[in-house]
What we know:
There is one protein chain. The protein is an alpha/beta fold. It has one domain (8-211): 3-Layer(aba) Sandwich (Rossmann fold). It is 34% helix and 17% strand. The protein has a 7-stranded mixed β-sheet, with helices on both faces. Helix 5 links the parallel strand 6 and strand 7. Helix 1 crosses helix 6 (194-211) and helix 3 (71-85) crosses helix 4 (97-111). The relative contact order is 0.14.
Amino acid sequence: MSMLPPFLFDGPEDADTTFAFAHGAGVGMESDFMDTIARGLAKKGVRVARFEFSYMQKRREDGKRRPPDRAPILLDIWRAVIEGLGRENLFIGGKSMGGRLASMIAADLEREEAAVKGCICLGYPFHPPGKPEKLRVEHLATLETPSLILQGTRDSFGTQEEVSSYELSSKIDIHWLEDGEHNFIPRKRSGRTTMQNWDEAIEAMLNFMNFTET
């Protein structure tokens, strides 16, 4: 049975750049967050391929909430997605868990000399909320694939203060969204709006994709 999930495409079919976009652990590919980001990139000429892992597809079918599958299954799906889209000018990434898995498969592909062009993580889950000792950064220290992490400054999965102390590869750029939480949503008193942070994230992603060398 094929591991390749169905895609939801935004943007021109003949685009020079494709971004494979995975969801987070609890919400599927049609969330307001993912929809806004995907459509924003598409308007600027990027072909965005959204997809869902098998456990989320099952939830869509029967409405029952279920936890993510084990990492090997999720990584196999990511690998099928990359093979299905082709590596030429392909950036991979995702929201939270989807981005973390993208960075993990990027590291695997480096070792196989089959690297993708770049990786983008939106709200990287550096650690579970309230458990800063349980870090998920080991592979990020040696990652060679050009990568961009977009992170809210007060994200409970890794704040700006916490992340500044981590050992991360020089290939990783971090763009901070002012007062943002895990979805980059700021507090009203910050003077920022959600759309300002989401638009800034889209712009940072476009800049990264446009200026990443092959």
